[in-house]
Design goal:
With 59 residues, the protein is mainly alpha-helical. The chain has one domain. 90% of the residues lie in helices and 0% in strands. It has 2 helices and no strands. It has helices spanning 2-20, 25-58. Helix 1 (2-20) runs antiparallel to helix 2 (25-58). The protein starts with a helix and ends with a helix. The relative contact order is 0.14.
Length: 59
């Protein structure tokens, strides 16, 4: 569920980035920074889920 939330946020921030490119440089830069964080969060959650599944398999 958290991963889906991150994916939704990533989608929204990508759309905002596309809408602001060349029009509002400050907002665009801010959105890109947030987007980078969201992608990192998604990766972290995905890795955590994979680790948990590996631990379940070896138990």
């Amino acid at each position: 569920q958290n991963i889906k939330g991150e994916q939704c946020a990533i989608s929204v921030y990508k759309k905002i980035a596309d809408l602001t490119i060349g029009k509002d440089l400050i907002t665009h830069k801010m959105v890109l920074e947030i987007l980078e964080d969201e992608v990192e969060h998604e990766d972290d959650l995905q890795n955590l889920l994979e680790d948990m599944n590996l631990m379940k398999g070896s138990a």
